[in-house]
Amino acid sequence: MIFAQIMAGGVGKRMGNTELPKQFLKLADKPILIHTLEKFIIFTDFERILVSAHPNWVQYTKDLIDKFINDKRIIVIEGGQERNDTVMAAISYIEKKYGPNATHTLLMHDAVRPFVTHRIIRENIVKSKEFMAVDTLIGATDTIVSVDGGVITDIPVRDRMYQGQTPQTVNIDKFKEYYNSMSATDKLKLSDSAKVMLLAGCQVGVVKGELSNTKITTPYDLKISEIIAREGLDVH
Prior knowledge:
Blueprint: E1 2-8, E2 26-27, E3 30-31, H1 32-40, E4 46-53, H2 58-68, E5 74-78, H3 83-98, E6 105-110, H4 118-127, E7 133-139, E8 146-148, E9 151-154, E10 162-171, H5 172-181, H6 184-189, H7 193-199, E11 204-208, H8 219-231
Parallel strand pairs: 1-4, 1-6, 4-5, 7-11
Antiparallel strand pairs: 2-3, 6-10, 7-10, 8-9
């Protein structure tokens, strides 16, 4: 079975002084989270669509989804303190409901990337049948510079540099096996699910992302996204 997980547990500190976490702010008169979920519910591949919410916002999230979307596959669960804790909470839910299975797959996406295209989601699903892990990437347009102690230590060749987006997709069994073998220190340092799988010795397949698949983090991002949402400029 394949499951989707929408990461909606952030409190949006970089968004500034807002009454609601950023995933609940409105774009074109609809909450960001709802825009994102609407991209996923069209796919019948997903057995369940788990929305991982901050413990203080679980009921609010449930009420919001009920107001806009009628899809019984959507389940709101509590997220964890760190990103991988949130992933493990979803895995725990899946295994309690469906039992462990070597073929179970989890596709994870940021709630605040509402312009993810159907193509990106579809290709993650398709490539998950070939690879134990899949990552969504776009080529770096600016030069990437490595800095340590206030000085440049390396300037990698830009043609080989990519920027990570979501979704990221993993084989649940393999992710859980390797994550549980990691030290507490490594668990705190490794917040990227694809990197966890890479260190586990898995080949990580690549799906081409889109510039429009942006993450809404700051007030500037929100203003640009409002224009995109109102003009219908996101690509399906």
